[in-house]
Design brief:
Elements lengths: L8 H10 L4 H11 L3 E5 L5 H8 L5 E6 L2 H10 L4 E4 L11 E6 L10 H14 E12 L15 E4 L5 E12 L3 E9 L7 E8 L3 H10 L2 E7 L13 E8 L4
Parallel strand pairs: 1-2, 1-4, 2-3, 4-5
Antiparallel strand pairs: 5-11, 6-7, 7-8, 8-9, 10-11
Helix pairs in contact: 2-3
């Protein structure tokens, strides 16, 4: 799930336990290793760029996130990376990056077409000609939200030994492609549950490609899973590699 809830310092410390390193992280790490300058939009706790840095990445690494609590974790683990508080609307770059990534389904928090357009224009501005923007969004055909039910409880243990139970519950599907849900965190050591509410947008491949093209980003590769399988109507993911078209 995207990290809507982790603006809280206690929850930010639990993020990596709740969302352990997986095939998606490996996918992005390979891309970061081969790029000279990288911007990670919605970098969260910073583990992707921190791993690249610890592996000896020689170039510039910049992480951008709107949650200060997440950046506290990022700065602790990799003080040598540039960590920036904000989002694509609050910071502008001018052709400074070879690669921009947006992982963890963060793209799905962009709900309206204009919000998407603004974000994509900012991405294009940050990329040099031929630079690449790589991100994923859940394929609407797979209807992932149907599995977000209270009976599917995950448990995680934080760095201080705190055990937390986490579950999701869908409130509704509306406007054709938006899903509103709650995320609940519960621990025996807490006086009360922590509950957040969020909405995600599930864009299909065709409208996604159209919005990218408007911003000067051309789709060059798309995959349906983290093993680089083909994109089909039943794929769980739409993993997109888009290239920045040359500017006049």
């Amino acid at each position: 799930m995207v990290d809507h809830s982790f603006a809280d310092l206690a929850l930010a410390a639990l993020y990596d336990s709740i969302n352990p390193w997986g095939p998606d992280d490996d996918f992005y790490l390979d891309l970061v290793r081969s790029a000279g300058t990288v911007l990670d939009v919605g970098c969260g706790t910073g583990r992707l760029l921190a791993r690249a840095g610890s592996d000896g990445h020689p170039g510039r690494l910049v992480g951008l996130d709107p949650a200060a609590a997440m950046l506290v974790q990022a700065r602790r683990r990799a003080p040598g990376v540039e960590w920036v508080l904000g989002d694509l609307r609050s910071r502008l770059w001018d052709r400074e990056f070879d690669l921009v990534v947006m992982k963890g389904h963060a793209f799905q928090v962009l709900l309206g077409d204009e919000e998407v357009r603004t974000a994509l224009r900012s991405v294009r501005s940050a990329l040099g000609d031929g630079g690449r923007f790589v991100f994923e969004t859940r394929h609407p055909g797979a209807r992932a939200w149907e599995t977000w039910t209270p009976d599917r409880v995950r448990e995680a243990t934080g760095p201080d030994g705190t055990v937390v139970r986490v579950w999701h519950e869908v409130e509704g599907v509306h406007a054709g492609d938006r899903v509103t849900f709650t995320e609940t965190f519960e621990s025996p050591g807490w006086p009360r549950r922590r509950v957040s509410r969020a909405t995600l947008r599930f864009l299909g491949p065709e409208p996604l490609a159209g919005l990218l093209a408007e911003a000067g980003l051309r789709v060059v590769e798309q995959y349906g899973d983290w093993g680089r399988g083909p994109l089909t109507p039943a794929s769980p993911e739409i993993i997109t590699v888009a290239e920045a078209a040359p500017t006049a």
